[in-house]
Input
Amino acid sequence: MMLLEEFSGFEGVGTYGLNQVPLLLEEKYVDCWSLPVVTLTAIAVSLPDIEKDIVDRLLRSVSEGLTYVKHVEETLNATDEHKIIQKAARRLWLEVEVYHKWLGSKLQNTSYEVNTPIEIVQRFSDMAKNMVVEVESKNMKCSDDRLLHRSVSASSMYRITQTILVSNQDNIDQVSQEDLVVQLSSMISNLLAACLTNLPQVIALKCHTGVIEKREASVHTAAQLLGESIQIINSLQDRKLPSLDPNELPFIDKWRDCFMHPSP
Output
């Protein structure tokens, strides 16, 4: 996987959403691995001066990575709350990968005269904020699946774009599109790598399912997953993991908190 070849550390897991960014909602959605990956990819695809080959390689690599992320999320992040976010991420990825859109808007909008990286990020942030406010004003997010999807996806975009703006505030005028796509790719690779460190646990659980009727199929799936992912597992096995309990490693919010508030 191309993005894992560029992987240098897990620190990006702690930087995709800074605490300085105010929440738009009183009720905070749970975090999942796939949604920030899709959101970061959407921003990268929107940069008009990045060569098409680079964008296409990024999309292929993220698509491959999300295949394995899905195994982790469905096995280890299987609460109802997590499933809501994962469903929103899957819908959003279809838009980004196939139609190059984000919640109905073209990712590369040629109607804007100026497209500096920060202006693009700010437009996404403003659009996301307006969407969240609009959905909240309808007071239907729990009963309308489409509106819930928009609220979840827009909240992720707002948090990530605001984080990018805050992180680059000291040199905001010097950030080029090439600089930004490198930042985004690094954050994506960090998130994918962190998530995929859980693959051995996923494979082990599939081999030890307690339901006899499902065991044969589950073991077959585990063997197939091991064969497909062995290179990924080998490339990550010697990486130093954060100081988390084993039962915390499947959860992105635990990783983020660990990097944001490291133990003394």
Summary: The chain has ten helices and two strands. The mean pLDDT is 88.
